[in-house]
Task: inverse folding
């Protein structure tokens, strides 16, 4: 069977997979099975496939049943870097690249105002390490500590640090602020993309059945982690620090109420993502 013939066969097989990306994904999957790149697949479309399709049938069925392609290929690009991902970590989202972008700008501004004072950043709940590692690679002078409560997630982050040759990220295991308090880390910048989906919110089967719940759900209203951090940030952030968060598209109002309660004296602002959804919160500690 040739590559083209297999593409046609899979178009038929995966037509009802309920995934709007299935046509593009078929080519990604075949390139992955052929151990080649997507770009090269076009050049060999009339060649015979170099694998036994029966060996991959299980994976194709899993895809048809809703398994995210990233958990099959073990790969997601984030901020221009190729990250290893598996079912122990949330698949990094495009919205989160915007958080990284905004933090990069903040780091440039702070460095400009403070000479070359070396900055410390902490990333709470790092998962695959996407935020911490891309910030580390973009800002080699930054000192970064990234935590996760899941030791399995930290194994993935460690693999990505090595794979991407990132020199300035240290991993810590533990819940929310605890590992930073224990290690006496005080940050200039706190970053967190916490699990923020309300416990009972109905979400897509693809997300709910495959991604780690510890990285998705944040209590009844999805705000548990923000509350914990708002209550105790002083223990891990310096006086003139900045707190940066991602949040759910419909959480701005509820979060703003919390910010007013916990930070009556501080400056804060929200930002929208590229889809014009409120997505990020920044609090400047004055
Ligand atoms: N943005 C993710 C989603 O909508 C949720 C990630 C998170 O809870 N931080 O699936």
Result:
């Amino acid at each position: 069977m040739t590559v083209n013939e297999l593409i046609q066969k899979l178009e038929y097989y995966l037509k009802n997979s309920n995934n709007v990306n299935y046509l593009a994904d078929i080519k990604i999957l075949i390139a992955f099975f052929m151990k080649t790149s997507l770009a090269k697949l076009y050049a060999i479309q009339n060649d015979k496939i170099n694998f036994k399709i029966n060996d991959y049938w299980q994976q194709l069925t899993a895809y048809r049943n809703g398994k995210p392609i990233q958990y099959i290929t073990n790969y997601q690009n984030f901020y221009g870097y190729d990250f290893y991902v598996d079912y122990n970590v949330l698949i990094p989202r495009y919205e989160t690249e915007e958080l990284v972008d905004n933090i990069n700008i903040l780091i440039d501004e702070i460095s400009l105002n403070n000479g070359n004072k070396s900055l410390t950043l902490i990333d709470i709940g790092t998962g695959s390490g996407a935020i911490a590692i891309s910030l580390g690679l973009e800002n080699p002078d930054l000192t970064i500590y990234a935590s996760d409560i899941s030791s399995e997630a930290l194994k993935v982050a460690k693999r990505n640090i090595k794979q991407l040759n990132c020199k300035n990220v240290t991993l810590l295991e533990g819940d929310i602020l605890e590992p930073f308090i224990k290690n006496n880390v005080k940050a200039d910048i706190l970053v967190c993309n916490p699990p923020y989906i309300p416990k009972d919110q109905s979400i897509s089967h693809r997300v709910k059945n495959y991604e780690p719940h510890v990285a998705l759900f944040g209590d009844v209203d999805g705000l548990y982690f923000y509350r914990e951090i708002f209550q105790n940030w002083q223990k891990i952030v310096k006086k003139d620090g900045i707190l940066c968060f991602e949040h759910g598209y419909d959480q701005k109002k509820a979060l703003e109420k919390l910010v007013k309660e916990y930070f009556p004296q501080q400056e804060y602002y929200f930002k929208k993502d590229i889809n014009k959804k409120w997505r990020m919160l920044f609090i400047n500690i004055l």
Observations:
- Residues 128 and 157 are 5 Å apart (CA to CA).
